Each structure stands twice: as structure tokens, then as C-alpha cells.
Amino acid sequence: MMDTVLDLLPLAAMMLATGVVAGVLAGLLGVGGGIVIVPVLDTALGLYGVDPAIRMHVAVATSLACIVVTSISSSRAHHAKGSVDFSIVKVWGPAVFIGSILGTIGASYVDSQILSALFGGIALVVALKMLLPLDDVNLSQDVPRGIIAPVPPLVIGGLSSMMGIGGGTLSVPVLTLMNQTIHKAVGTAAIFGLLISLPGTLGFVVSGLGDPRLPVGSLGYVNIIGFLLISPVTVWAAPIGAKIAHKLDKRQLSMLFGGFLFLVSCRMIYRTFA
Asked: Known PANTHER family for this protein (predicted)?
């Protein structure tokens, strides 16, 4: 029994450290922490012998469960600083929610390697957008309304739930391309994290029930041990990130976001083809 507990200590330490980094990044960048949680959990689960065919599914599902908690903390911190645009939330929110449901259904039918490739490829494109001097490049002067209004949030919700991220990774650069400030985009993205993670978590619980390959302590594809270790720490750390975000200028925040995403995307692309 003691040997089993000692064997789990490195994994527990890795999950706690993941929670700290994910929480700070959730508040700093509005990304919900999933962009950190997914690759780290994927690595940790691999070290503990989880079947590669479902490893990314477990990492994505557990990440979404953690983001339910993290996004609430991050949203409150950004709302207190007046950086949540509720007019955008009203227009995009329902489509983000529906997209998340559709993405979760799609993810349950694809291979773990495909999820890795999707994660790495999209993260790389977003990273390059944020790193390049494109801050003044806009696709539109405002968030589109009317008949095409649901298209961007549907795509963001669907891809985000498949990747196990809170939506900030995609919605922040998209909103900045629609002439929204980086700070307003980050704050608004935190709200989308809840709309993506809640239906995504429930969907992965249902789709993973009864799978004999699941690691110990799992409810469907959601690993409860990982959730219990990571989510409380992310809640504690998210306000720290939000405070840092409002001390940085627009370009500094964009460069920080892009640089981190570039490193993560390279790791996930390597994982896909290794």
C-alpha cells in the first residue's frame, strides 16, 4: 500500500504544479488553463502506462472539468476589472455552448493521435498570429452581427471542446482580429470557458463510461484524481494572473501568449509523429 502511494507522489506533484501554472495563465491570458493541462496530463498519463488510444481523451476531459472551476474564478477577476464585454457574450454565448456539444460528440469518435494533431496545429497557427506584428490588422471593425454572427463562436466552441481548452486560445486572437482590445478579449474569453467546459465535461463523462482502459479514479474520461488535485490550485492562482495581465501593455501580453502557445504546439506536434 505504501509503495503504491509513493508511486503516485510524482504524478500528484506534477498535477499540483500544473494547477499553479494553469491558474496563472487562465487569469493572465483568458485561456482557461487547458492549453497547459492537456499536454502535461498527456505526458503524465503516458508515464503511468495509460493506453495511448485514450490518453488524449482523458487529458482533454479532465482539462475541461478543471476549466469549469477555473473559468468561474477567472471570469470574476476580470469582471471586477471591467474587462468582460457582455454584449459579445450575449451574441456569441449560445453558439459557443452549442459548438462545445458538437465538438465533444466529434471527439469521442476520433483517435487520440488526431486530437494531438488538431491541438498542435491550431495552437501553432494561433501562436504565429500573436507573435507576428499584426496587432493593427483587423478582419472587421467590430464583432459581426446578423446571419453570420453564430459562425465564429460555433467553430470556437467545437474546436475548443475537442482540444480540452477553455476557448481563450481561439477566441482571444479572433476577437482581436475583430478590433477588440487584447484586455477586453481576454476578459470576455474567460466567460466562454464556462460555456465550453461544462457541456464538454458532461459529454466526455457519458462517452467514456465503462471503458476498461481508463486509469484508476476515472468517471468516464474525466480523471477525478487529476481534477481534485489541479482545480483548487487553479482557482487560487487565477486572480494572480489577472492582476499581472493588467500591468502589461498590449504588445507584451500578445508576445507572452504567442510564445507560450508556440512551445506547446511544437510539443504536441512532436507527440503526434513520434
From this structure: MEMBRANE TRANSPORTER PROTEIN HI_0806-RELATED (PTHR43483)
Spell out the residues 6+ positions from residue 187 whose beta carbon is closer than 8 angstroms to its own.
30, 75, 78, 79, 81, 83, 84, 85
* Consecutive H or E run containing 85: none
Q: 211: which 3 cell numbers?
A: 471503458
Decide if 190 contacts 171 (C-beta within 8 A). Answer: no
Q: How many CB atoms lie within 10 A of CB 141?
A: 8
Q: What's the number of domains the chain is made of? A: 1
C-alpha span between 110 and 86 (Å, rounded): 34
Q: Burial letters for 162-190: b for 16+ Cβ neighbours within 10 Å, e otherwise?
A: bbbbbbbbbbbbbbbbbebebbbbbbbbb
Give the residue-averaged pLDDT of 23-49.
74
- How big is the CA angle at 134 (ends 21 and 266), to the nearest 5 degrees? 45
| 3-state DSSP assignment of residue 180 | coil
For 77-122, write each residue's pLDDT tens digit: 777 777 777 888 888 888 889 998 898 888 878 777 787 787 788 7
For residue 85, give its domain range.
2-273
In this structure, what are the phi and psi dihedrals at residue 222, rounded to the nearest 5 degrees? -85, 120
Report the sign of the C-alpha dihedral through residues 270, 103, 164, 239, in that order: positive
What is the rounded distance in angstroms from the CA atom of residue 237 to the CA atom of residue 260?
Answer: 18
Torsion of CA 95, 75, 66, 105, to 10 degrees: 0
219 φ/ψ angles, rounded to the nearest 5 degrees: -120, 105
